Amino acid sequence: MYLNFEADPKDRFVYRITTVERLKELFTLRSNTLVKPNLWDDPFENFILNSKVRLKSGKIVKYNYHESVYGQCWTLHKESDAMWRIYAAEKGGVRLRSTIAALAQQFESAHSEHTDVRCCVGRVQYLSPRRMKRFADSTFDDYGIEVTNIFGSLLVKRLAFAHERELRLIYFELDDSKLGEDMYGYAVDPHAMINEIMLDPRLPLDAVKLKKAEIRSATGFRGPIKRSLLYSAPREGILDVSDWEP
Fold first, then answer.
1. Three-state SS for 112?
2. Could you give the angle at the alpha carbon of 112 between the alpha carbons of 109 and 118, nearest 5°?
3. Which three-class secondary structure state does DSSP give residue 210?
4. pLDDT per residue over 150-162, tens digit each?
5. How do residues 90-134 score in pLDDT, each as one tens digit?
6. Which residue in 128, 114, 209 sits closest to 161, CA to CA?
7. C-beta neighbour count of 161 within 10 angstroms
8. Coil, strand, or helix at residue 111?
9. For residue 245, what is the enclosing H or E element?
């Protein structure tokens, strides 16, 4: 299931900044890990599903859907100083590149049964407090909640986070007996999922060759491994002075 895309998104690149250790786990375990939203930094994550609901009858109830969802965050940002600083604070991170189509294919192939009600690839909407409240109020009704609303409730964030340009993989666990764990992993082919690895722009130049060799040895990755040029100094040039005089 795709949500919040105005056009066919499948060929678009998406990115995820993580640690080298997580990268190695992805390739060696061949498993992609989603986590419960309560482990994310923003306390507003999953607040809709966590909320009590006042039905039209006046009765107040609380559903347990918040225990059934897991997610993983990617971004449409190709290069962002803020994202490197937030998600690679130790200055040794890596940026994984994929496509929306590759993420969806791996996600859906691991959940071939009831795919549309278990798997969602969705773009986050960034809303003002008023629009957020209006959206939350429309999530439930007296008959419970549709799975589309469950996915949609995890695809809204406050405007303060709009710089993230986030895309999320969301999984809804149908089997209550499997709940209780904070993380959920599913089988993937990492070589089909990841098409480029970018090293941290703050990694010293003399460490790049060794880091590339370390990653290739640990993962067997055959695609390009580059170092981000975000903080590279521009080439020396000549600036043309305008003929205009005050």
1. coil
2. 100
3. helix
4. 898 889 998 988 9
5. 888 999 999 999 999 999 999 999 998 899 999 999 999 899 888
6. 128
7. 14
8. coil
9. none
